[in-house]
Amino acid sequence: MTTDQMAQLSNYLTGSAFAVLWIAFFCHVAEWISARREAPVAVAAGQGPVVTADHDADDRPETPDRLVGIAVSLTVLGTLLLIGGSVTRGLATQRAPYGNMYEFGVTGTAIALTVYLFMVWRSRIQWMGGVVLAVCLGILTMSVSSYTPAGPLVPALNTFWKYIHVTSIMVAAAMFMVGAAASVLYLVKQRAEDRGAVGPVLARFPAAARIDQVAFRVNAIGFPMWTFGALISGPIWAHLAWGRYWGWDPKEVWALITWIVYAGYLHARVTAGWKGRRAAYLALVGFATFIVSYYIVNLFISGQHSYA
């Protein structure tokens, strides 16, 4: 297979993954819609959901229903296709597949979905699937919109540190994506619990406190990876490429802003006891700064990282 054929195969695999993941997302939406036909659920203060129909909550099935099972299966398929698209892109370019914004988005989303599926296997968090897919599809859409044909790296990127720096950033970004999805779910579920009634759709999600813990744990894993990738290996790479460790390039500035926001989030949770709504909003602010760094800076702000 020639490199051109490999690049074309990568495009087909990535496009197929995009379509499959959209179908998986709509399966989650269909499950939410079907859930609305169930009996309403009331929530007492400080307690979990209490079903108000004639049947008891213990009689509700614990395993995901058919639509959720289909959605998770399609997510597995879409993730495998996305991994295939990333691998074949690397084979086509004969380098690691994260030399530009398109490749970073495809590979990073594949990592995020792999993290999510691992958590489904270990902790049964398939209830996050619809929101996780929404976030991942948003990132993929931004990546596809900035598609770059397969080609060699610019000289500044062609060092061993690209593997260390970019891999750390991508793993951190994957964690932040899952954490953002959990934070959104928490805010929705907590608002419903505060009002004293949870509808049949939200009743399928765990208590808000558990969702909050999931958000905290994945963000806590992502933060040290971002610290190492953005503030340690990144400056080392910059020194090798440009002869300086830090130059206040727009990409560097926004990476630092992202680090500051997530550092504040974790510090507030650990030392000030911030939980719940305030912590969730702060986590979403951190994810918004990541999106600015990933998308806005790359496309609309000129700098040494504009190619990335």
From TrEMBL:
Domain spans labelled Cytochrome c assembly protein: 115-303
Topology of this chain in the membrane: Multi-pass membrane protein
Key words of the record: Cytochrome c-type biogenesis, Membrane, Transmembrane, Transmembrane helix
Pfam families given in the database record: Cytochrom_C_asm
Membrane-spanning parts: 12-30, 67-87, 99-118, 125-144, 164-188, 220-241, 253-272, 279-301
Origin: domain of life: Bacteria
Record's subcellular location: Membrane
Gene Ontology MF annotations: heme binding
Major subcellular location class: membrane
InterPro entries xref list: Cyt_c_assembly, Cyt_c_biogenesis_CcsA, Cyt_c_biogenesis_CcsA/CcmC
GO CC, any one term: plasma membrane
Name of protein: C-type cytochrome biogenesis protein CcsB
Biological source species: Aeromicrobium flavum
